[in-house]
Amino acid sequence: MRSIVILPRVFLAAVLFLSVLFAAAADVAVPPLKTRVTDLTATLNAEQIAALESKLAAFEQKKGSQLAVLLVPTTQPETVEQYGIRVVEQWKLGRKGVDDGVLLLIAKDDRKLRIEVGRGLEGALPDAVAKRIIDEYMVAPFKQGDFNAGVNAGVDRIIKIIDGELLPEAKPKSGGASSGINMENSMGWGALLVVFLGGILRAMLGTFFGSVAAGAIATGVAMFFGVEMAEASIVGVIVFLFCMIGLSLFGSAIGGGSSDGGWSGGGGDFGGGGASGSW
After folding, report:
1. H-type helices in 22-45, by residue range?
2. CB of 58 within 8 A of CB of 77?
3. Which residue has the higher pLDDT, 108 or 238?
C-alpha cells in the first residue's frame, strides 16, 4: 500500500530529473507536416516549390507512395541521420501497412543530406542505390549552389526507381485504437506524466530504446524513494510497456502527423534504411 502512495511522487521525480538532464540538449524541432515540400532555409522560391509540390502530388496520385522534401539550416547537435529518424517517426510518410514513404532531407548549413527510405521500399531503394543518387545526381549541383536542380535531380531518380516497383495493396485499417485511452484513465494523472517522460525519450532515442530508458529511469527513481526492488521493477516494466505501446496508440488517437487540414503522412513505418552524403 505504501508503494502505491509513492507512485505519483516517483513519476513526478522522474519528470523533474529528465527536465534538468535534457534542458541543455536543444534539439532542432521537427516542423509540422503541411506540404510535401518544407523549406525552412528560404532556398527555393515560390515557383520552384510549387513545381516540385505538383510533381510529388502527381506521383502520389499515380503510385500511392509519399515522397517529402525538407530543407533545414542545421540538424545540430544531432547528426543528419538522427534528425531524419525523428522526422519520419513524426511525419509517418507512406501508406500504413505498405510503408512506401521517402524523405529527402537537406541540412544546408551543415552541407549534409539524407535519403530516408520506408521499410516497404528498402528492396527497391537499398542503401547503395540511395547513396548513388546522392553522389551522382545531387552533390554536383549542390556544390555549384543550384539547390533546385539538385533536389529535382534526386527526386526524379527516386520517382523513377519507385515507379518501376510493384507495390502491394495498402492493408485495411483496423478499428481498435481505444485500449491506450483505457490505460490512461486507469493510471490517472500519473500516466499523463509518463506520456511526457516517454515522449521526450522516444523522440531522442527512438521508440524501443526510449521506452527502455524510461523504464530504467522509473525503476531507479522508485528505488531512490524507498520502494523495494521487486516493486520498483514492476513500475519500470509498466512504464516501458506504456511508452512502447500505450504512447503509440495515444498518438494514433490524437492524429500522428497533424497538418491543420493540409497534407499529412499515411502512417508508414521506417527502419533506418537510406543513405547520407555531403557536398
Report:
1. none
2. no
3. 108
Q: Which of 193, 238, 155 is nearest to 12 (CA)?
A: 193
The three three-digit cell numbers of residue 91, written as one number:
511525419
> What are the distances in angstroms from CA 36 to CA 59, 74, 91, 143?
11, 19, 11, 24
Nearest CA to 158 out of 63, 279, 272 is that of 63
Say which DSSP state 125 is in. Answer: S
Contacts of 271 (CB under 8 A, 6+ apart): 119, 122
What the block records as the C-alpha cell of 51 is 513545381
Amino acid residing at 137:
Y
Say if residue 254's pLDDT is above 80: no
Q: Identify which of 238, 55, 71 has the alpha carbon closest to the alpha carbon of residue 158.
A: 55
d(CA 162, CA 130): 12
Count of residues making up the chain: 279
pLDDT of residue 4: 53
